[in-house]
Amino acid sequence: xxxxxxxxxxxxxxxxxxxxxxxxxxKETYKxxxxxxxxxGGSFLFERFSIDQLTNASDPYGLKLEFDNTYGFMxxxxxxxxxxxxxxxELNWFNKVDxxxxxxxxxxxxxxxxxxMGTATACVKLHPPIGSIRFFRPYVxxxxxxxxxKITSVVPAGGNRYNGANEEIDPVIRGGGGADFFLTDWMAxxxxxxxxxxFHDLNxxxxxxxxxxxxxxx
Length: 218
What we know:
The protein is mainly beta. The protein has helices spanning 2-21, 52-58, and strands spanning 36-47, 70-80, 85-102, 110-126, 136-157, 160-182, 187-198, 206-217. The protein is elongated.
């Protein structure tokens, strides 16, 4: 999937951007001429994890690892280069994702797994023209950065309990899209959805992140 997604995003951004920038009418399609912006809001994560090491350790004992979805908070700062391109840096923090279950072979024994994570990413955003609508500004984005993840586990095995903790910081890429709804020329409400994929030791951490936020333009 990565081998297909990355080239497609690169081609779209490189080829579509110059053509869109030449459309002079685009200046009429969004409300603000301000360049800097700050945003803050909430997130909701839909997990797509596949942690093989824990699954292999727990499956023989009747334990099925299924992590919960979770919520989080985000903040970002960006700069609008022109009517088509903008760039931003974003921080995401998520409440811990946890799972717990009882070992059917050992009454009274419970397995617990907790995952704490966050990301720091930089993205390029492409804003396509949408005619004469002034308050609505959609976009697609692509970028990457770093993901921090710490997993803590207590897994029963054969009547014993194994405690473990591991923390990693590895690269992550993301792609997605969203839209800004301008309330004034300096304030907008935004919604966004992105797919995140970790690499190296975090290659099994993948998820869909949805966010809603308030942006202030300067």
